[in-house]
Amino acid sequence: xxxxxxxxxxxxxxxxxxxxxxxxxxxxxxxxxxxxxxxxxxxxxxxxxxxxxxxxxxxxxxxxxxxxxxxxxxxxxxxxxxxxxxxxxxxxxxxxxxxxxxxxxxxxxxxxxxxxxxxxxxxxxxxxxxxxxxxxxxxxxxxxxxxxxxxxxxxxxxxxxxxxxxxxxxxxxxxxxxxxxxxxxxxxxxxxxxxxxxxxxxxxxxxxxxxxxxxxxxxx
Length: 220
Fold this sequence. Notes:
The protein is of the alpha+beta class. The chain has 10 helices and 7 strands.
């Protein structure tokens, strides 16, 4: 099974590069259409909120680590996640936490935009981004990609004013990168999609394998 792999101490980040992952205090070019915004304050990952679905009292917790630009993550969200959600999350058996990984600046921008709508809209926008991933990533051109992402977000009810504010918030972007780095180091995340199931690391799996692991943990 092929997956995009993280390298030790950071990510294979074409576009994010060293400014994001080895220098948390570096300038973050949040909006490619505007000049870079320089932030000298250190990153504060504690300001970033986990996005969560399911009951807080669920007997099992799944944490997914995924990148919006990862094709295998898109495949998981198309072919495994809907059944997982119907059978386990919606029925109160699993608490599901989604955490972003940043391979590149496009994934960072997608994360910023998905979070721009708040917790209520996040998962809807996320699924839309995965569904349309090939379309919005196709050009490889930063200006085109950010415009395609904006179009997707607007179909979910976000306005240009909301998106402008979110995309130009360099402090938030810096905190997201710091949050990702801390999460990946703590949980030993080296590829996407990866999963923590009650704190135990798992690579990407077919639905039947998820079902087997979850049923054993729930039954136990």
